[in-house]
Amino acid sequence: MRITFSNARLWRYVMASVGKFIDTGYILINENGLTFKAMDPSKTALIIFEIPKEGFMEFDVEGEHKLPLSIEDTAKILRTAEKDDVLSIEWSSESITFVFERRGVPRSFTIPLYAESAIEEIPELELEIPNKYVIYAAGLYDAINSLEDVSEVLAVSGDEQKLVLTAEGDIATAEITLDTERGGLEEAQVENPGFRALYSMEYFSYLKSPMKMADRSILEVDEGLPCRLTLEYSVGARIVYYVAPRVEE
Amino acid sequence: MISAELCVRCKGYKRLCGLPKCPILEKARAAIEATARIAGLKIIGSTPPTAVVGERNYPSVPVIVGIPPGVSGGDAKIYDDPQGWWGKLGLTDILRLRGYQVSSIMRVNVSEPFTLYEKEVGIAAISARPVDTEVVLERLPRPITRLDPFVGATGPAAPAKEVRVVGNASLPRKLEEIIWDDVSAEEAVFELIRGGVDTYSIIRAMSLGFLGRVRRRKLVPTRWAITAVDRAAVKYFLGGLRDLPSVDKVSVHVLEYLMNRFYVILYPGKYHVEWLEVWRPKTGLTERASSSVIVYSRDYGTGRTSTIDGGFDAARHGLVKALYERGRRASAIIVRVIEPGYVIGVGNWHIRETVYRAVRSEGLTFDKLSDALAWVASVENMDVVSALKKLMTMSTRSLDIFAGNGSALKK
């Protein structure tokens, strides 16, 4: 069985980002497509990388296959992916093979799979989050890039027109406002205006590269709830990323 | 006025205040008189071994070999023996021992570690026992102690005209084997840990360019080598911890040495560590502070940390090594309280050793993590209490509690 994806670089950036804070995850492949899932050991962040069957150039799959793997090893392999590389994935019950191909020259890397018992169960999150903001292309990347050095905590607040991202450090404070009228924000659907939610900045910093590559970012957020960040890509792929809230008790 | 918080983060090394030299270290330097008896330009003694690779003028770096004048054989060991010092010697004893050693400085290009092997200086530096050495200095050294919060203090120094190793070095067997192996430095560190070689020999071997791919071997400034070995050790022990059962109780392990008090709180779960440093006013780095300076960092469970902190690296090394030896994994909170008498850092070794010994100790058990934290708060001063409160009240929730349709849990 084999699947082939046209943009190896997207995989490269996703795995490099996830590998910064998560060791293990699994790929689930079935007739609907591919899902990669991983959660960090402190259970603060959960990432789901999905590509529907239609997003693949080749999709030769029967049944369902769960492939637990080392993210560090996978990221090391994917580090060699270049702009024009096409990525194929083949697997057996014991190993997974990544094949990059550019100008007819294949490069193949095989690593062993983990036992399924080595991967901790990842919870299903079906949250209804009342405030939803659609952000233009790299707007979120620019914001995080500017704020991350100021504070360890990212405060998110907003109303029906604007989304405010704030970093309050010991010495300095930085604030970025994305607005539906003045720019940065494509759409805002807000049921709980005036909310203020807190998250660890580092978990947003990790995802900067995938944020930069996204066509569109959707941030769903509310006080005391995890945020759900959806990054959409032109090839039909998307990342759904949850970050647990920080709470002042 | 430079804020004490900046000083604590910098530790005199990162030059965060913009000054060319750390004024605090300069002041301490002047206050500590080196005690070495230097009669002439020729120094005869045994290096314990002490070998430090500096980073100034990289890639042409100073290599410092320390020798206590007139002290030879086994008696020289005590001049550089962190594991032997622990719990027995105080801050001034350690500074006195360091100050007694004469540091002979050679300048070597980092790409040419082999020049040190030819003179047997490199081999002497990684010996398990003191090695008789003769040094002819170019000039008489000034009687001052050099201070480095990471590496520790070194005694009066002068450029060496000649360094001659006259005794026989005795290498741990595993180390003797690995220096001929063409493997990555990280793999070599793993192998040495597996072979039971002590951390300080591994650091010297890494620093003197004995580890790594043969064609790419270089001298590594000791500060960098300490960080590299601590991080490699964390990675090595973490690999083993993952498959071990978790501790089943919450416990607090308290240990104090060199006016640094450590509370290691272990609780059931996957490995991840939170690090809280409470620098009380009037330590070497908080001279001007009116209240405690708090430093916070964490290891997310992958071995990577939220800030770059050599002290935290050393603490994590001690923690994971002890957990591995106990055959248990755990989540941990480490609180380090630095008391006013800690006027100057003597190296990160005491953090590594104290945390290791704390985790190996029996500890007090509690039903809940909040009870353990409350107990620490009850026995500590107000600054520590407020730091702990910040840790407890500004917590990140786990995604677990939102599993399924978790919106019902919204506050």
Number of helices of chain B: 14
DSSP helix fraction of chain B: 25-40%
Which structural category fits the helices and strands of chain B? alpha+beta
According to CATH, the fold-level topology of the largest domain in chain B is Ribosomal Protein S5, domain 2
Tell me, what's the shape of chain A?
elongated
Question: Looking across the biggest beta sheet of chain B, what order are the strands in?
Answer: 1-5-6-4-3-2
- Helix fraction of chain A? 10-25%
Tally of domains of chain A: 2
CATH topology of the largest domain in chain A: DNA Polymerase III, Chain A, domain 2
Low-pLDDT segments of chain B = 406-411
| Low-confidence segments of chain A | none
Q: Rough shape of chain B?
A: globular
Keywords:
heterodimer; A: 249 residues; DNA Polymerase III, Chain A, domain 2; nine-stranded antiparallel β-sheet; B: 411 residues; alpha+beta; Ribosomal Protein S5, domain 2; 14 helices; 13 strands
Q: Can you describe what's shown?
A:
- The complex is a heterodimer of chains A (249) and B (411).
- By secondary structure, chain A is of the alpha+beta class.
- In chain A, 15% of the residues lie in helices and 46% in strands.
- In chain A, the strands form three sheets. Chain A has a nine-stranded antiparallel sheet with strand order 6-2-3-4-18-17-16-10-14.
- Chain B has three domains: 148 residues, no CATH class; 69 residues, no CATH class; 160 residues, Ribosomal Protein S5, domain 2 (2-Layer Sandwich).
- Chain B is 33% helix and 21% strand.
- In chain B, strand 7 and strand 8 form a beta hairpin.
- The C terminus of chain B is likely disordered.
- Chains A and B meet through strand 19 of A and strand 13 of B.
- Strand 19 of chain A pairs antiparallel with strand 13 of chain B, so a sheet runs across the interface.
